[in-house]
Amino acid sequence: ADMLKSLKRGDNIITSGGVYGKIVSVADDVITIEISKGVNIRIARSGIAGLQPSDNAEQKDKELSK
What we know:
The protein is α+β, with helices and mostly antiparallel strands and 66 residues long.
């Protein structure tokens, strides 16, 4: 619940349906995310499953798996 409340523009997220995107705007319970360059969709705040790991975290995971 705290994660959903703290969402802000620029966050990289994954929806409960498995769609990855970047938040471009937040208006009450409607979040607009960019899923591809110039392609935006609007979803309910409750439809967000979590934040994507940062690029640094992904890089560390790749290094550890070597």
